[in-house]
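Hi support team,

I submitted a single chain yesterday and got back a structure, but I'm not sure I'm reading the token output correctly. Could someone confirm the output below corresponds to the sequence I sent? I've pasted both exactly as they appear in my results page.

Thanks,
R.
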Amino acid sequence: MKTSGAGATTGSLISALLSFLPLSCCIFPVAFSFLGAGGIAFAMSLMPYRSYFVALTLLFLGGGFYFAYRPEKVGCAPGTACGSPRSRKLQRVSLWVVTALTLILLTFPYVIPYLPVDWIGN
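Hi R., thanks for writing in. Yes, this is the structure output for that exact sequence:
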């Protein structure tokens, strides 16, 4: 019995969406300060929940990797024709891109103090 890729696709979409949750407490305040917008207080109010957002993001990324790299179950009776398994190359590449972007965004708050002040725009 062949399983459908719906679970893997759903897991990938959820992990991609949740990978942007840390933006609400880490990157958005910096972006708002560059733009001079007044939403910094809202973004900073989410800062106590940053660890929960990061944990959820990493949990769903782990789930995405599980679904992307687990072996496919193909059950065929001996002597019968079986369909060829679907390629998961696009799913795996997009998962790695989202993971790299997530890791960059998670480390960004720790890199900000070391950025040159002239580059930030004093």
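A quick pointer for reading it: Residues 7-73+85-120 form one domain. Let us know if anything else looks off.

Best,
Support desk
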